[in-house]
Design brief:
With about 250 residues, the protein is of the alpha+beta class. The chain folds into two domains: about 110 residues; about 110 residues, Sandwich (Immunoglobulin-like), CATH 2.60.40.1400. Strands 3, 4, 5, 7 and 8 form a five-stranded antiparallel beta sheet that branches. Strands 1-2-6 form a three-stranded antiparallel beta sheet, with no helix packed on it. A hairpin with a 3-residue loop joins strand 7 and strand 8. The chain is rod-shaped, with a radius of gyration of 64 Å. It starts with 19 loop residues before the first helix and ends in a 6-residue tail after the last strand. The model has no long low-confidence stretch (mean pLDDT about 80).
Length: about 250
């Protein structure tokens, strides 16, 4: 019997059977569980890593596609900008050419207008003393009050006897009807005249004569004669004659 000190606490001893194989199995089982847990953790971590990489690759693919799309859009915009710039340059050139053409045409028109004025002056000087002329105008009273005989002679100065003068003449009587000025065409007061434009066709002269009747209350003031010749030279003349009546 072992020695026991009196008054000290004594622990009970347990006797167990010695089994070395069972301890080895327990140790191996523990090691296997630890290894399995470690392997599972590594596999899970690897799966999460691969999943994250795939997600990142997908995001990168989307970003790459978007970048490519933006690059294409930018290139298209650059092409459109270049086209617009070229079009703007062409428009400016065309506008400059048009403005130059307009300026040239305006200068040409101004020159032509000056030439026309010059030629008109030359023709007027050449025809002033030749061609159509008013030879004479006679007014004679009749026994019938308000009724008068008229005779207008139109001449062709410097006529060669072979060329007909062609044109027309208008004869108007101007006076007062009460307080109002009135213009009467010869055809309205003369029975022998039917046309406003009295035709002219003669070699040397042409007489236009007949009788006219004044409206009641009309006070004649002057006779206006306007004539135009088309051949052999173009000429326009206009002259007013006072109302002067020769009495019998």
């Amino acid at each position: 019997m072992p020695n026991v000190v009196k008054g000290s606490k004594q622990e009970q001893m347990v006797v167990v059977p010695y089994r070395p194989r069972q301890r080895m199995r327990s140790t191996l089982l523990l090691v296997f569980c630890v290894a399995t847990s470690a392997a599972g953790g590594w596999v899970y971590g690897y799966y999460q890593t691969m999943l994250a990489q795939q997600t990142e690759l997908a995001d990168q693919g989307e970003l790459t596609a978007e970048i490519n799309s933006l690059r294409l859009e930018n290139a298209d915009l650059q092409r459109q900008t270049a086209i617009l710039e070229r079009s703007s340059v062409m428009d400016q050139q065309a506008n400059a050419e048009v403005q130059g053409t307009i300026t040239s045409l305006r200068a040409r028109i101004a020159q032509l207008e000056e030439d026309i004025v010059f030629y008109r002056q030359v023709v007027a000087e050449e025809t002033e003393e030749t061609g159509l002329m008013i030879g004479q105008l006679d007014l004679d009273a009749t026994t019938d009050p308000g009724r008068y005989r008229y005779k207008l002679v139109m001449r062709q100065k410097d006529a060669d006897g072979d060329t007909f003068l062609l044109g027309h003449v208008n004869v108007n009587l101007i006076g007062l009807q009460g307080d109002e000025q009135v213009i009467l065409a010869l055809r309205d007061i003369a029975e022998t005249e039917n046309e406003l434009d009295i035709r002219l066709r003669f070699r040397y002269f042409q007489n236009i004569e007949g009788e006219l009747t004044l409206p009641e209350g009309f006070q004649p003031d002057r006779i206006q004669i306007a004539a135009v010749s088309d051949e052999p030279v173009s000429k326009t003349i206009s002259e007013d004659f006072g109302w002067v009546v020769a009495t019998e």
